[in-house]
Amino acid sequence: MEVQSLLQNLIKSDPQNIKSLQLKTGQIIKGQVLELINEQLAVVSIRGIRLIAKNEVPLKKGQKAWFMVTARDHEITKLKLIHISNPTNPKDHSLPIDDLLKTLQLKNSSQNRNLIFSLIEKQIPVKKETILAIEQYLQKTKENMTDVIHAVDILNDLDLPITASHIRSLVEFFDGQDLPKRLSILRQQIKNEIKHFQDQRGIFEDTSTSLKEIVEQIDDVLRSYSFPNEKIEGKDLLLSIKKYLEYIGANSNSYPTLKQHLQSLLGMKDKLPDPLTSTLESLVFHLHGQQLTLQPDTNHFTHLFLQFPNFIRFSEEPIYVQIHSKKKGNQTIDMNDVRLVFLFQFPNLGDTIIHIHLLQRQMIVWLYNDHPSIHEIIKTIGSRFEEFIKREGYKTSGIQIRSLKELKGKESFLSSPTPYQGVDLRI
């Protein structure tokens, strides 16, 4: 999940990101007091941005300190002083984690200390419920901590509840295995089980019938992604995307979704073998993860993640897409001001991120890739790309190539990004 986390760093580190300082209650931040307005109000600089803060204790001009956001009231942020940096030691950036654990009434363990460090680094509100949800999830799995924090980071960005179930859903969603691949594995397991039931001479006939119905629906889903070997037309791709959104339940509630069928089958898990039950559970969580990332924001922004089966013949990895946009009227996405980011994982070129910013009729394109030949490759297609963009009515200055290393190690704040230019998504 490391590469997918770069998508968030890409937008979070962008100084033009309008969500880059959207503080939340419980968030722990480092700032410097620039000016005292009165005994309670002060101008505080946080990541180069000035804001008016209401403090619970008196502060001094020039102080560098750690604060916890305790409330947001219109234009004023209420901060609680956590720790004042040592003025005699400019390199002192330490934060008393032990004191925080005591305040939160949490066990002082290495795991909890590491969790708090990670949450602060990702600008995720440090709350007891969040730590307990992560602990609950980790008790049931040996998942990589980086993957878990990435899932929590996305839940926080999307303003979704951070629960053990939601964490698992996003971990499954970003594990690198696309929906058709998962369905193919499940289909084979189900067919093996149907044969087993037939050998049992009709025992559990109701379960066998349910299994057959699931196989039929899986076949329907897989057929929608059986692209021909020749060039894929844009209209065929858009039709497949539309079908995909319908299958995962994003576009319609008028009929049972694939997830609902699988959940009903899980209700019979006492009659199913453990490997099949495990695959079913994993797939249900994967679908739920996709649905979570399509939840409409409650504020003025749209921030979506999508995973599509790869339609590029020489790559088998799924394509991850992010969309970040201000809402416009009743439209979820404003195509005059939207950021689109695609993540491709090519076997030869390696990880590739394409970041597109559509602003009015201007298209700004950044391509992140570390392959030694990437500049020569882009040079051969650059002129054709510019001609195509102009025919579509956009202006562009071409493709700017950057290294993926630029995205690693950057401090992050919020997130955003992604789909296919020209698609009007109404989710």
Describe this structure in words.
The chain is α+β, with helices and mostly antiparallel strands and 427 residues long. Among the domains are: 28-91, Beta Barrel (OB fold (Dihydrolipoamide Acetyltransferase, E2P)), CATH 2.40.50; 186-280, no CATH class; 301-407, no CATH class. Helices cover 39% and strands 22% of the residues. The protein has 12 helices and 11 strands. It has helices spanning 2-12, 97-103, 110-121, 128-139, 145-157, 164-173, 179-199, 205-223, 234-247, 258-266, 274-292, 374-391; strands at 28-36, 41-46, 49-55, 64-73, 76-84, 301-308, 319-326, 337-346, 350-359, 362-368, 395-402. It has a 6-stranded mixed sheet, sandwiched between helices. Strand 4 (64-73) and strand 5 (76-84) form a beta hairpin. Helix 4 (128-139) packs across helix 6, helix 7 (179-199) packs antiparallel against helix 11 and helix 10 (258-266) packs antiparallel against helix 11. The chain is globular and about 80 Å long. The protein starts with a helix and ends in a 25-residue tail after the last strand.
